[in-house]
Amino acid sequence: MTLNLTAELAATRLLAVIRGTDTAAAIATGTALLAAGVRVVEVALTTPGALDAIAAIRATAPAGSLVGAGTVLTPAAVADVAAAGAQFVVTPAVVDSIPEAVRRGLPVTAGALTPTEAYAAVRAGASVVKLFPASVGGPAYLKALRDPFPDIPFVAVGGVGLAELPGYLAAGAIAVGVGGPLVGDAASGGDLGPLRERARAYVAATS
Question: Which residue is catalytic, options 8, 42, 100, 164?
Fold first, then answer.
């Protein structure tokens, strides 16, 4: 059965984005996030050893959690992340990987900023549209974008800190995607203690 990514994101309202410079640190980060109550994480393919990290995090992930791949740009990359065990795909734009992921039964969160891009993402088969970078227009822009597209599920990604999070959810985002403000330098070898504290704060804010 194909994963209903829209429903999962709407239920948890938080997507953690892991983008770092060290494979082992990325694995430790993903494991710590899931242990702290985050239920949906993605590992960006710009992270060294991202495929290994996806496989390792998925192998120990708690039941009910989801591990996906981010920055998936090409059909070949879709094949790679599928082999690594990724459960969903995230893109930064409307790119060639979307139809291939859909063909393989991997749900897609596709990046878009403009109304044209949001519509194109859905036409290409995306389950969810990632408003990126959300900080360019803020919650007011998201609300304006949703007016003509009330049926498109949007996830706000890019510059969403704890202070900004409630505004995006109030504007109609089904979830927020958070990288730097949540992960910090943990995926590049930083301390996991502060990461766990931030994770608990984000989980509490979206519960």
Answer: 42
pLDDT (tens digit per residue) in 57-102: 999 999 999 999 999 999 999 999 999 999 999 999 999 999 999 9
Query: Is omega for the bond preceding 99 within 30 degrees of 0, making it cis?
Result: no
Domains of the chain in start order, with CATH, are 5-206 (3.20.20.70)
Instruction: Exactly one of 8, 100, 130, 164 is catalytic; name it.
Output: 130
Distance, CA of 108 to CA of 138 (rounded, Å): 23
Report CA-CA distances (Å) from 182 to 19, 82, 132.
Answer: 11, 26, 17
Residue 1 has pLDDT above 70, yes or no: no
Active site residue 143: no
Q: Is residue 130 among the annotated active site residues?
A: yes
Whole-model pTM over 0.90 = yes
